[in-house]
Every structure is written in structure tokens, then in C-alpha cells.
Design goal:
Anthranilate synthase, isochorismate synthase activity, alpha+beta, nine-stranded antiparallel beta sheet, 19 strands, isochorismate synthase, isomerase, EC 5.4.4.2, single chain
């Protein structure tokens, strides 16, 4: 594929690019930037691809359509099943994460926090990292995810396969989702969800409904369903609506990001707890990425944004894999640790 060749060329020349495939699609799209400067957006009125951090007070990086070569190609990759890498469990990491979860549960029980999403960074040494091979494995193994590779010489290299849509917007009509609750897929037809996961999911859905009520009309909340993402199962609720005339894409993004699925409730208190207590900086993990005001062949303004989950950054032959989980008063710290181990395996199996 021409796109794969251009990935190598741009990466070697240290020129910014993003290559991605939307969930359940047969084609891969790419923007190869013609400039190497760092460009940001705060208005979300431009046309291009954004890469935004978890911290919603900071600007999103923009690869503008105007300053990029756009390519779209069909893929013909068969499913590649990689052997699951054994998780070399770091006892120190386990101890630290369990301690953090226990502290979070105590904090929730002692004040008005309802949920906090806490996460950790797992470092994996890479002996023979091949950028194209890893990207191809992501594309082949995670057909129903938003799969991407993103690079900027001033920021770094990121890859991911996220199951969570933040927003899909066509002119003034939008779709979003609440995605919470996690369990391992065990090839069973009757999936049983415990109260903890159901409550966590409902908190996210209620937040989205409350945030959108005053900026939209025709708001519809679908029934909650179970969805598969790699080796994991999640609870998902689809939400649709239409923006009011005095609202826009920025209004929508500010209302939703960061959602309780990656932050917590109340949002600002949960965010402060995360920043104060996680022992690393999330940067772009649990941020969002995707197309804004984007349709090269039409005057329609389409935006497709995804939450940056199941992702990793690569630097100096080391992969930083980011994983977390939603904590409520009913959480069990050892089970929360096991959930992060299951989530980290999604990235590990392609390395």
C-alpha cells in the first residue's frame, strides 16, 4: 500500500502524519503534513485531524487538511492472531495501583465523589520494534475499533485501537455513547453484569444526558447493550440528538470531554484527584482524536472523534502502555488491578 510506504518516508524524515481506520471500515485514511511546525486549535472550526490531551484546559494539536496530503486506500489485511504476550507482572506496580485504588475508594466514601477513573503507565522494553508490522497487527486484530498511528517530531509516536466514540457529527446532527464496565470475554451468550458495572455505566449515561440537554434537541438514549472490544466486553449506550442553532462543535466537545468514563464525577473534583494522585502525566491518554469539519468530497461538515483508549506511546525502544478503570464505592482493588492487566494485553499482543 502507498500509505505504508509514506509512513516510513515521513517517519524517517521526521514529518508529522496520522494514518487511521474507522471502526468496521474497509479503507485506511491518512494526512501527511507538508509542514513540521506544531499547530493548535481551540475553536475546532478548521478542517483536519485533531489530537487532544486529557486536560481540557489545553489546546488540541491540529493537522490541517490545507497543509496536508490526504490519502484514502482500501485494505485487504487478513486477521492476524498474535500470541498473547505473557504479562510479566511487576509486583511494585501491582502494589502501587492497589494502593491508589484503595485511596480512591476511601476518598469516594468520605466526600461527594461518585466515581473516579484512575490509571497507570506500564513500560515495555522493545527489542525489535517494527512500526508497520505493529500497525498492521492493530488493523487486522481490531476491526471494530478506531485504529491509528500518529506522529509529530515535537510530541512523539502514538498508536492505538480504541473502542470508544466521543462524537460523530454531521452538520448539526450528532451521535455519542457512554461506555463503561469491563469484563473478560469468555465466549458465553449470557453475559452477567454486576451492580458495580451497571451503576458505573448509568453514571456516565446520566452525565451525558445532563450535559447535552441544554445545547441540543431530539435527544434520544438507546437501550444499553454489551459490546466486544478485543478480548474484553463493555457496556455501551448510544445517544443521538441535534445541536441547537447557538451551539457548535466546540460547545459539544466542551460539554462532553472528559466524560466520566475516563475522568469521574463530579468532573472537576475527579480530575483534581487524578492529577494529584496518579504518579505520571496522562498527556494524550484519555484525550480524544479524529476528524473535524472533514469531508474532502462534499460540503457537509463531518466530524468523527474518538476517546484515546487502548493506546501507547513509543520512545527510545520503550512502549508506554496506558490502562485504567472506573472506581466507585463498590470497587475491589485487586479486581481493578486485574482489569488493567487485561486491558494492557490488548496493546502487548501486537508488540
Amino acid at each position: 500500500m502507498k500509505i505504508f510506504e509514506k509512513i516510513i518516508t515521513s517517519y524517517n524524515k521526521e514529518m508529522p502524519f496520522v494514518v487511521y481506520r474507522k471502526p468496521n471500515k474497509k479503507s485506511v485514511s491518512a494526512l501527511f503534513s507538508t509542514i513540521d511546525s506544531l499547530t493548535f486549535t481551540n475553536s475546532f472550526t478548521e478542517s483536519g485531524f485533531v489530537f487532544a490531551p486529557f486536560d481540557n484546559t489545553k489546546k488540541a494539536i491540529l493537522f490541517s487538511l490545507e497543509n496536508s496530503e490526504y490519502i484514502n486506500e482500501k485494505t485487504s489485511l487478513d486477521t492476524l492472531i498474535s500470541d498473547d504476550k505473557k504479562n510479566n507482572l511487576d509486583e511494585k506496580s501491582k502494589k502501587n495501583h492497589i494502593k491508589l485504588v484503595d485511596k480512591t475508594i476511601k476518598e469516594i466514601k468520605n466526600n461527594d465523589l461518585k466515581k473516579v477513573v484512575v490509571s497507570r503507565e506500564e513500560l515495555v522494553a522493545l527489542s525489535d520494534f517494527n512500526l508497520i508490522n505493529v500497525f498492521q497487527k492493530l488493523l487486522s486484530n481490531y476491526k471494530n475499533a478506531f485504529v491509528y498511528i500518529w506522529f509529530h517530531p515535537k510530541i512523539g509516536l502514538w498508536l492505538g485501537a480504541t473502542p470508544e466514540t466521543l462524537l460523530e457529527v454531521n452538520n448539526s446532527t450528532f451521535k455519542t455513547m457512554s461506555l463503561a464496565g469491563t469484563q473478560l470475554f469468555k465466549n458465553v451468550n449470557n453475559v452477567v453484569w454486576k451492580n458495580k458495572e451497571l451503576e458505573e455505566q448509568q453514571l456516565v449515561t446520566d452525565f451525558i444526558e445532563n450535559q447535552l440537554r441544554n445545547i441540543s434537541t431530539n435527544l434520544t438514549i438507546d437501550k444499553t447493550e454489551t459490546v466486544k472490544a478485543g478480548s474484553l466486553l463493555h457496556l455501551k449506550t448510544k445517544v443521538t440528538g441535534k445541536l441547537l442553532e447557538n451551539s457548535n462543535l466546540k460547545t459539544l466537545i466542551r460539554a462532553l470531554h472528559p466524560t466520566p468514563a475516563v475522568c469521574g464525577l463530579p468532573r472537576e473534583k475527579a480530575k483534581k484527584f487524578i492529577v494529584d494522585n496518579e504518579n505520571y502525566k496522562r498527556t494524550y491518554y484519555t484525550g480524544f482524536l479524529g476528524e473535524i469539519n472533514f469531508n474532502p468530497k462534499s460540503t457537509d461538515k463531518n466530524s468523527s472523534l474518538f476517546v484515546n483508549l487502548r493506546c501507547m506511546s513509543i520512545e527510545n525502544k520503550t512502549a508506554s502502555i496506558f490502562v485504567g478503570g472506573g472506581i466507585t464505592k463498590d470497587s475491589n482493588s485487586k479486581k481493578e488491578w486485574e482489569e488493567t492487566v487485561a486491558k494492557s494485553s490488548i496493546m502487548k499482543r501486537v508488540l
